[in-house]
Amino acid sequence: MVAVRLGLPAIVGYLLAGVAVGPFTPGFVADTHLAPQLAELGVILLMFGVGIHFSPRDLLAVRAVAVPGAVGQIAVATALTAGVAWWWGWGLGAGLVLGLAVSVASTVVLLRALEERGLLASDAGRVAVGWLLVEDLVTVLALVLLPALAGQLGGAGAGPAAPAAEAGLAVSLALAVAKVVLLGAVVLVVGTRAVPWLLARASATGSRELFTLAVLAVALGIAYGAARVFGVSFALGAFLAGLTVAESDLGHRAAEDALPLRDAFAVLFFVSVGMLFDPAVLLTAPGRVLAVLGLIVVAKPLAALALTALVRRPLGTGLVAAAGLAQIGEFSFILAGTGIALGLLPPEGASLILAGALLSITLNPLLFRLVGPAEAWVARRPALAARLGARPAVPLPPSTGAEEVPVRAA
Predict the structure, then answer these.
(1) How do the domains of the chain map onto residue ranges?
(2) What is the DSSP string of 338-367?
(3) What's this model's pTM, rounded to 2 decimal places?
(4) Given a cut of 60, is residue 398 above it in pLDDT?
(5) How confident is the model at residue 388 (pLDDT cuts 50, 70, 90)?
(6) What pLDDT sits at residue 408?
(7) 136 touches 388 (CB < 8 A)
(8) Which of 93, 151, 289, 398 is the most exposed place for a label (fewest CB within 10 A)?
Protein backbone atom coordinates (compact mmCIF):
# COMPACT_ATOMS: atom_id res chain seq x y z
CA MET A 1 0.00 0.00 0.00
CA VAL A 2 2.83 2.39 0.80
CA ALA A 3 4.47 1.70 -2.56
CA VAL A 4 1.24 2.36 -4.46
CA ARG A 5 0.59 5.53 -2.44
CA LEU A 6 4.02 6.76 -3.49
CA GLY A 7 3.15 6.13 -7.14
CA LEU A 8 5.40 3.08 -7.45
CA PRO A 9 4.41 -0.34 -8.86
CA ALA A 10 3.09 -2.71 -6.20
CA ILE A 11 5.85 -5.19 -7.07
CA VAL A 12 8.34 -2.82 -5.37
CA GLY A 13 6.34 -3.16 -2.16
CA TYR A 14 6.24 -6.95 -2.44
CA LEU A 15 10.01 -7.17 -2.88
CA LEU A 16 10.72 -4.77 0.00
CA ALA A 17 8.31 -6.74 2.21
CA GLY A 18 10.41 -9.81 1.48
CA VAL A 19 13.57 -7.92 2.38
CA ALA A 20 11.96 -6.84 5.68
CA VAL A 21 11.09 -10.42 6.73
CA GLY A 22 14.22 -12.00 5.25
CA PRO A 23 17.22 -13.39 7.16
CA PHE A 24 19.48 -10.47 6.19
CA THR A 25 17.54 -7.78 8.08
CA PRO A 26 16.90 -7.48 11.83
CA GLY A 27 13.61 -8.42 13.44
CA PHE A 28 11.10 -11.07 12.40
CA VAL A 29 12.34 -13.71 9.95
CA ALA A 30 9.78 -15.62 7.89
CA ASP A 31 9.92 -19.39 7.38
CA THR A 32 12.76 -19.83 4.91
CA HIS A 33 11.67 -23.41 4.14
CA LEU A 34 7.99 -22.71 3.51
CA ALA A 35 8.53 -19.54 1.46
CA PRO A 36 10.29 -21.27 -1.48
CA GLN A 37 7.53 -23.91 -1.65
CA LEU A 38 4.84 -21.24 -1.85
CA ALA A 39 7.00 -19.37 -4.36
CA GLU A 40 7.08 -22.49 -6.56
CA LEU A 41 3.30 -22.39 -6.71
CA GLY A 42 3.56 -18.72 -7.62
CA VAL A 43 5.93 -19.53 -10.50
CA ILE A 44 3.60 -22.25 -11.79
CA LEU A 45 0.55 -19.98 -11.71
CA LEU A 46 2.47 -17.06 -13.23
CA MET A 47 3.65 -19.16 -16.16
CA PHE A 48 0.17 -20.70 -16.47
CA GLY A 49 -1.23 -17.18 -16.86
CA VAL A 50 1.41 -16.34 -19.46
CA GLY A 51 0.37 -19.42 -21.44
CA ILE A 52 -3.33 -18.49 -21.30
CA HIS A 53 -2.68 -14.91 -22.40
CA PHE A 54 -0.11 -15.80 -25.05
CA SER A 55 -1.54 -14.70 -28.39
CA PRO A 56 0.21 -15.89 -31.56
CA ARG A 57 -2.01 -13.47 -33.53
CA ASP A 58 -0.73 -10.48 -31.57
CA LEU A 59 2.85 -11.62 -32.17
CA LEU A 60 2.31 -12.24 -35.89
CA ALA A 61 0.88 -8.72 -36.30
CA VAL A 62 4.20 -7.15 -35.24
CA ARG A 63 6.60 -9.97 -36.07
CA ALA A 64 8.69 -7.83 -38.43
CA VAL A 65 9.57 -5.56 -35.50
CA ALA A 66 9.21 -7.70 -32.39
CA VAL A 67 11.12 -10.82 -33.45
CA PRO A 68 14.37 -9.25 -34.71
CA GLY A 69 14.14 -6.49 -32.11
CA ALA A 70 13.66 -8.77 -29.09
CA VAL A 71 16.19 -11.37 -30.21
CA GLY A 72 18.76 -8.69 -31.04
CA GLN A 73 18.20 -6.82 -27.78
CA ILE A 74 18.51 -10.03 -25.73
CA ALA A 75 21.72 -10.93 -27.58
CA VAL A 76 23.26 -7.48 -27.06
CA ALA A 77 22.25 -7.21 -23.39
CA THR A 78 23.37 -10.76 -22.60
CA ALA A 79 26.74 -10.29 -24.32
CA LEU A 80 27.42 -6.97 -22.59
CA THR A 81 26.44 -8.34 -19.18
CA ALA A 82 28.48 -11.52 -19.66
CA GLY A 83 31.46 -9.33 -20.57
CA VAL A 84 31.03 -7.27 -17.39
CA ALA A 85 30.69 -10.48 -15.32
CA TRP A 86 33.87 -11.86 -16.92
CA TRP A 87 35.67 -8.64 -15.93
CA TRP A 88 34.49 -9.31 -12.35
CA GLY A 89 36.09 -12.76 -12.54
CA TRP A 90 32.87 -14.75 -12.93
CA GLY A 91 32.60 -17.84 -15.12
CA LEU A 92 30.76 -18.16 -18.42
CA GLY A 93 27.71 -19.81 -16.85
CA ALA A 94 27.30 -17.08 -14.24
CA GLY A 95 27.66 -14.35 -16.86
CA LEU A 96 25.17 -16.03 -19.17
CA VAL A 97 22.50 -16.40 -16.46
CA LEU A 98 23.04 -12.84 -15.25
CA GLY A 99 22.88 -11.58 -18.85
CA LEU A 100 19.63 -13.40 -19.60
CA ALA A 101 18.12 -12.12 -16.34
CA VAL A 102 19.09 -8.54 -17.21
CA SER A 103 17.81 -8.82 -20.79
CA VAL A 104 14.17 -9.82 -20.13
CA ALA A 105 11.59 -7.32 -18.87
CA SER A 106 8.68 -7.77 -16.47
CA THR A 107 5.31 -8.48 -18.08
CA VAL A 108 3.48 -7.12 -15.04
CA VAL A 109 5.32 -3.81 -15.04
CA LEU A 110 5.18 -3.23 -18.80
CA LEU A 111 1.46 -4.00 -19.21
CA ARG A 112 0.55 -1.79 -16.28
CA ALA A 113 2.69 1.09 -17.57
CA LEU A 114 1.16 0.89 -21.05
CA GLU A 115 -2.37 0.56 -19.68
CA GLU A 116 -2.00 3.57 -17.38
CA ARG A 117 -0.92 5.71 -20.35
CA GLY A 118 -3.56 4.39 -22.77
CA LEU A 119 -0.91 2.94 -25.08
CA LEU A 120 -1.87 -0.74 -25.16
CA ALA A 121 -3.92 -0.47 -28.38
CA SER A 122 -1.50 1.96 -30.05
CA ASP A 123 1.18 1.11 -32.62
CA ALA A 124 3.89 1.51 -29.97
CA GLY A 125 1.93 -0.53 -27.43
CA ARG A 126 1.38 -3.40 -29.83
CA VAL A 127 5.07 -3.47 -30.71
CA ALA A 128 6.05 -3.46 -27.02
CA VAL A 129 3.62 -6.30 -26.19
CA GLY A 130 4.81 -8.36 -29.17
CA TRP A 131 8.41 -7.70 -28.13
CA LEU A 132 7.57 -8.98 -24.66
CA LEU A 133 5.94 -12.14 -26.07
CA VAL A 134 9.19 -12.96 -27.89
CA GLU A 135 11.14 -12.38 -24.66
CA ASP A 136 8.76 -14.77 -22.87
CA LEU A 137 9.42 -17.45 -25.49
CA VAL A 138 13.18 -16.95 -25.23
CA THR A 139 12.91 -17.29 -21.44
CA VAL A 140 11.00 -20.56 -21.80
CA LEU A 141 13.70 -21.82 -24.20
CA ALA A 142 16.43 -20.79 -21.73
CA LEU A 143 14.69 -22.67 -18.91
CA VAL A 144 14.74 -25.77 -21.11
CA LEU A 145 18.38 -25.50 -22.20
CA LEU A 146 20.11 -24.32 -19.01
CA PRO A 147 19.80 -27.68 -17.17
CA ALA A 148 21.19 -29.49 -20.22
CA LEU A 149 24.10 -27.05 -20.51
CA ALA A 150 24.84 -26.65 -16.79
CA GLY A 151 27.72 -29.12 -16.71
CA GLN A 152 29.49 -27.53 -19.66
CA LEU A 153 28.96 -24.00 -18.28
CA GLY A 154 30.65 -24.72 -14.96
CA GLY A 155 27.59 -25.65 -12.92
CA ALA A 156 26.57 -28.87 -11.22
CA GLY A 157 28.23 -31.84 -12.85
CA ALA A 158 31.06 -29.86 -14.46
CA GLY A 159 34.47 -31.33 -14.95
CA PRO A 160 34.59 -34.03 -17.70
CA ALA A 161 37.41 -34.21 -20.20
CA ALA A 162 37.04 -32.09 -23.32
CA PRO A 163 35.99 -34.86 -25.79
CA ALA A 164 33.60 -36.32 -23.24
CA ALA A 165 32.25 -32.84 -22.53
CA GLU A 166 31.53 -32.25 -26.22
CA ALA A 167 29.81 -35.62 -26.55
CA GLY A 168 27.90 -35.03 -23.34
CA LEU A 169 26.79 -31.63 -24.54
CA ALA A 170 25.42 -33.02 -27.80
CA VAL A 171 23.61 -35.84 -26.01
CA SER A 172 22.22 -33.49 -23.37
CA LEU A 173 20.92 -31.05 -25.95
CA ALA A 174 19.43 -33.84 -28.05
CA LEU A 175 17.69 -35.33 -25.01
CA ALA A 176 16.41 -31.92 -23.90
CA VAL A 177 14.98 -31.15 -27.34
CA ALA A 178 13.45 -34.65 -27.63
CA LYS A 179 11.81 -34.36 -24.22
CA VAL A 180 10.36 -30.95 -25.00
CA VAL A 181 9.07 -32.08 -28.41
CA LEU A 182 7.47 -35.19 -26.89
CA LEU A 183 6.01 -33.18 -24.01
CA GLY A 184 4.64 -30.57 -26.41
CA ALA A 185 3.08 -33.28 -28.56
CA VAL A 186 1.45 -34.98 -25.58
CA VAL A 187 0.17 -31.77 -24.04
CA LEU A 188 -0.99 -30.05 -27.22
CA VAL A 189 -2.48 -33.16 -28.89
CA VAL A 190 -3.95 -34.97 -25.89
CA GLY A 191 -4.39 -31.88 -23.75
CA THR A 192 -6.33 -29.91 -26.35
CA ARG A 193 -8.91 -32.70 -26.31
CA ALA A 194 -8.94 -33.74 -22.67
CA VAL A 195 -8.65 -30.29 -21.06
CA PRO A 196 -11.63 -28.68 -22.87
CA TRP A 197 -13.70 -31.79 -22.11
CA LEU A 198 -12.76 -31.63 -18.41
CA LEU A 199 -13.49 -27.89 -18.15
CA ALA A 200 -16.83 -28.32 -19.94
CA ARG A 201 -17.87 -31.10 -17.54
CA ALA A 202 -16.84 -29.00 -14.52
CA SER A 203 -18.70 -25.97 -15.88
CA ALA A 204 -21.82 -28.04 -16.51
CA THR A 205 -22.12 -28.76 -12.78
CA GLY A 206 -22.90 -25.08 -12.19
CA SER A 207 -20.40 -24.98 -9.32
CA ARG A 208 -17.85 -22.19 -9.56
CA GLU A 209 -15.65 -23.90 -6.96
CA LEU A 210 -15.46 -27.13 -8.98
CA PHE A 211 -14.61 -25.20 -12.13
CA THR A 212 -11.84 -23.26 -10.34
CA LEU A 213 -10.48 -26.49 -8.88
CA ALA A 214 -10.52 -28.08 -12.33
CA VAL A 215 -8.49 -25.16 -13.72
CA LEU A 216 -5.94 -25.40 -10.90
CA ALA A 217 -5.76 -29.19 -11.26
CA VAL A 218 -4.89 -28.74 -14.94
CA ALA A 219 -2.22 -26.13 -14.18
CA LEU A 220 -0.58 -27.96 -11.30
CA GLY A 221 -1.13 -31.44 -12.75
CA ILE A 222 0.48 -30.76 -16.12
CA ALA A 223 3.34 -28.84 -14.46
CA TYR A 224 4.00 -31.70 -12.03
CA GLY A 225 3.67 -34.37 -14.73
CA ALA A 226 6.03 -32.46 -17.02
CA ALA A 227 8.65 -32.22 -14.27
CA ARG A 228 8.21 -35.78 -13.01
CA VAL A 229 7.92 -37.68 -16.30
CA PHE A 230 9.83 -35.51 -18.77
CA GLY A 231 12.36 -33.93 -16.41
CA VAL A 232 11.64 -30.34 -17.51
CA SER A 233 10.94 -27.37 -15.27
CA PHE A 234 7.61 -26.71 -13.55
CA ALA A 235 7.58 -23.36 -15.35
CA LEU A 236 7.62 -24.95 -18.82
CA GLY A 237 4.90 -27.45 -17.89
CA ALA A 238 2.71 -24.66 -16.52
CA PHE A 239 3.23 -22.58 -19.67
CA LEU A 240 2.09 -25.49 -21.85
CA ALA A 241 -0.88 -26.06 -19.54
CA GLY A 242 -1.88 -22.44 -20.10
CA LEU A 243 -1.66 -22.93 -23.87
CA THR A 244 -4.03 -25.91 -23.70
CA VAL A 245 -6.55 -24.05 -21.53
CA ALA A 246 -6.43 -21.08 -23.92
CA GLU A 247 -7.62 -23.40 -26.72
CA SER A 248 -10.83 -24.14 -24.78
CA ASP A 249 -14.00 -22.13 -25.27
CA LEU A 250 -13.88 -21.62 -21.51
CA GLY A 251 -10.31 -20.31 -21.53
CA HIS A 252 -11.33 -16.72 -20.79
CA ARG A 253 -13.44 -17.81 -17.81
CA ALA A 254 -10.63 -20.08 -16.61
CA ALA A 255 -8.22 -17.13 -16.63
CA GLU A 256 -10.68 -15.00 -14.65
CA ASP A 257 -11.38 -17.69 -12.04
CA ALA A 258 -7.71 -18.56 -11.52
CA LEU A 259 -6.63 -14.90 -11.34
CA PRO A 260 -7.20 -14.26 -7.60
CA LEU A 261 -5.27 -17.34 -6.51
CA ARG A 262 -2.57 -16.66 -9.09
CA ASP A 263 -2.14 -13.12 -7.80
CA ALA A 264 -1.94 -14.28 -4.18
CA PHE A 265 0.78 -16.83 -4.88
CA ALA A 266 2.56 -14.46 -7.24
CA VAL A 267 2.81 -11.99 -4.37
CA LEU A 268 4.33 -14.72 -2.20
CA PHE A 269 6.78 -15.46 -5.02
CA PHE A 270 7.95 -11.84 -5.06
CA VAL A 271 8.17 -11.80 -1.26
CA SER A 272 10.29 -14.97 -1.28
CA VAL A 273 12.58 -13.37 -3.87
CA GLY A 274 12.93 -10.32 -1.61
CA MET A 275 13.99 -12.63 1.23
CA LEU A 276 17.03 -13.65 -0.83
CA PHE A 277 18.27 -10.07 -1.06
CA ASP A 278 21.16 -9.06 1.18
CA PRO A 279 21.05 -5.25 1.49
CA ALA A 280 24.74 -5.33 2.41
CA VAL A 281 25.51 -5.68 -1.31
CA LEU A 282 24.59 -1.99 -1.69
CA LEU A 283 27.53 -1.15 0.60
CA THR A 284 29.98 -3.94 -0.27
CA ALA A 285 29.54 -3.83 -4.05
CA PRO A 286 27.96 -0.49 -5.03
CA GLY A 287 29.91 -0.44 -8.29
CA ARG A 288 28.46 -3.78 -9.37
CA VAL A 289 24.95 -2.67 -8.45
CA LEU A 290 25.36 0.49 -10.54
CA ALA A 291 26.80 -1.55 -13.41
CA VAL A 292 23.77 -3.87 -13.44
CA LEU A 293 21.42 -0.89 -13.18
CA GLY A 294 23.22 0.82 -16.07
CA LEU A 295 22.86 -2.26 -18.24
CA ILE A 296 19.13 -2.35 -17.51
CA VAL A 297 18.18 1.33 -17.84
CA VAL A 298 20.81 2.52 -20.35
CA ALA A 299 22.21 -0.32 -22.47
CA LYS A 300 18.90 -2.15 -23.00
CA PRO A 301 16.90 0.97 -23.99
CA LEU A 302 19.63 2.15 -26.38
CA ALA A 303 19.73 -1.29 -28.01
CA ALA A 304 15.94 -1.33 -28.35
CA LEU A 305 15.95 2.19 -29.82
CA ALA A 306 18.66 1.30 -32.35
CA LEU A 307 16.93 -1.93 -33.39
CA THR A 308 13.54 -0.26 -33.91
CA ALA A 309 15.28 2.34 -36.09
CA LEU A 310 16.92 -0.43 -38.15
CA VAL A 311 13.51 -1.94 -38.95
CA ARG A 312 12.19 1.54 -39.86
CA ARG A 313 9.74 2.09 -37.04
CA PRO A 314 8.92 5.67 -35.93
CA LEU A 315 10.99 7.29 -33.22
CA GLY A 316 7.99 7.39 -30.85
CA THR A 317 7.56 3.63 -31.13
CA GLY A 318 11.24 3.08 -30.38
CA LEU A 319 11.14 5.39 -27.35
CA VAL A 320 8.07 3.68 -25.86
CA ALA A 321 9.63 0.25 -26.39
CA ALA A 322 12.91 1.45 -24.89
CA ALA A 323 11.22 2.90 -21.79
CA GLY A 324 8.98 -0.13 -21.31
CA LEU A 325 11.86 -2.59 -21.49
CA ALA A 326 14.15 -0.64 -19.14
CA GLN A 327 13.28 -2.82 -16.14
CA ILE A 328 13.41 -6.46 -15.03
CA GLY A 329 11.05 -8.56 -12.94
CA GLU A 330 9.47 -11.97 -12.52
CA PHE A 331 11.21 -13.83 -15.36
CA SER A 332 14.58 -12.52 -14.22
CA PHE A 333 13.89 -13.96 -10.76
CA ILE A 334 12.90 -17.32 -12.25
CA LEU A 335 16.12 -17.42 -14.27
CA ALA A 336 18.15 -16.43 -11.21
CA GLY A 337 16.55 -19.18 -9.13
CA THR A 338 17.29 -21.72 -11.86
CA GLY A 339 20.89 -20.50 -12.13
CA ILE A 340 21.46 -20.82 -8.39
CA ALA A 341 19.84 -24.29 -8.27
CA LEU A 342 22.13 -25.45 -11.10
CA GLY A 343 25.24 -24.04 -9.41
CA LEU A 344 25.81 -21.51 -12.18
CA LEU A 345 25.01 -18.21 -10.45
CA PRO A 346 26.65 -17.20 -7.15
CA PRO A 347 24.39 -15.90 -4.35
CA GLU A 348 25.71 -12.40 -4.98
CA GLY A 349 24.18 -12.62 -8.45
CA ALA A 350 20.68 -13.01 -7.00
CA SER A 351 21.22 -9.91 -4.85
CA LEU A 352 22.49 -7.92 -7.85
CA ILE A 353 19.46 -8.98 -9.93
CA LEU A 354 17.06 -8.03 -7.16
CA ALA A 355 18.79 -4.69 -6.59
CA GLY A 356 18.59 -4.01 -10.33
CA ALA A 357 14.90 -4.93 -10.35
CA LEU A 358 14.03 -2.72 -7.39
CA LEU A 359 15.87 0.30 -8.75
CA SER A 360 14.82 -0.11 -12.40
CA ILE A 361 11.13 -0.63 -11.57
CA THR A 362 11.23 2.43 -9.32
CA LEU A 363 12.82 4.51 -12.11
CA ASN A 364 10.57 3.18 -14.87
CA PRO A 365 7.73 5.74 -14.48
CA LEU A 366 10.32 8.53 -14.79
CA LEU A 367 11.62 7.06 -18.04
CA PHE A 368 8.11 7.00 -19.49
CA ARG A 369 7.69 10.68 -18.57
CA LEU A 370 10.83 11.45 -20.58
CA VAL A 371 9.48 9.87 -23.80
CA GLY A 372 7.56 12.98 -24.94
CA PRO A 373 10.32 15.51 -24.19
CA ALA A 374 12.94 13.23 -25.78
CA GLU A 375 10.89 12.89 -28.98
CA ALA A 376 10.37 16.67 -29.14
CA TRP A 377 14.09 17.31 -28.56
CA VAL A 378 15.09 14.93 -31.36
CA ALA A 379 12.45 16.38 -33.70
CA ARG A 380 14.16 19.78 -33.46
CA ARG A 381 17.34 18.18 -34.86
CA PRO A 382 16.50 16.78 -38.33
CA ALA A 383 19.84 15.07 -38.91
CA LEU A 384 19.69 13.23 -35.59
CA ALA A 385 15.99 12.43 -36.12
CA ALA A 386 16.76 10.79 -39.46
CA ARG A 387 19.47 8.61 -37.91
CA LEU A 388 17.19 7.53 -35.04
CA GLY A 389 14.35 6.42 -37.28
CA ALA A 390 11.98 9.40 -37.30
CA ARG A 391 10.63 8.29 -40.68
CA PRO A 392 7.16 7.55 -41.91
CA ALA A 393 5.90 4.42 -40.20
CA VAL A 394 5.44 1.13 -42.01
CA PRO A 395 1.74 0.53 -41.28
CA LEU A 396 0.91 -2.44 -39.11
CA PRO A 397 -1.72 -4.92 -40.26
CA PRO A 398 -5.25 -4.36 -38.98
CA SER A 399 -5.72 -5.19 -35.32
CA THR A 400 -5.74 -8.89 -34.54
CA GLY A 401 -7.02 -8.76 -31.02
CA ALA A 402 -4.35 -6.67 -29.33
CA GLU A 403 -7.09 -4.35 -28.09
CA GLU A 404 -8.30 -7.21 -25.92
CA VAL A 405 -5.04 -7.17 -23.96
CA PRO A 406 -6.33 -4.67 -21.34
CA VAL A 407 -9.29 -6.98 -20.63
CA ARG A 408 -7.13 -10.09 -20.43
CA ALA A 409 -4.47 -8.35 -18.35
CA ALA A 410 -7.09 -7.09 -15.91
Answers:
(1) 31-153+174-409
(2) HHHHTT-S-HHHHHHHHHHHHHHHHHHHHH
(3) 0.77
(4) no
(5) low
(6) 39
(7) no
(8) 398
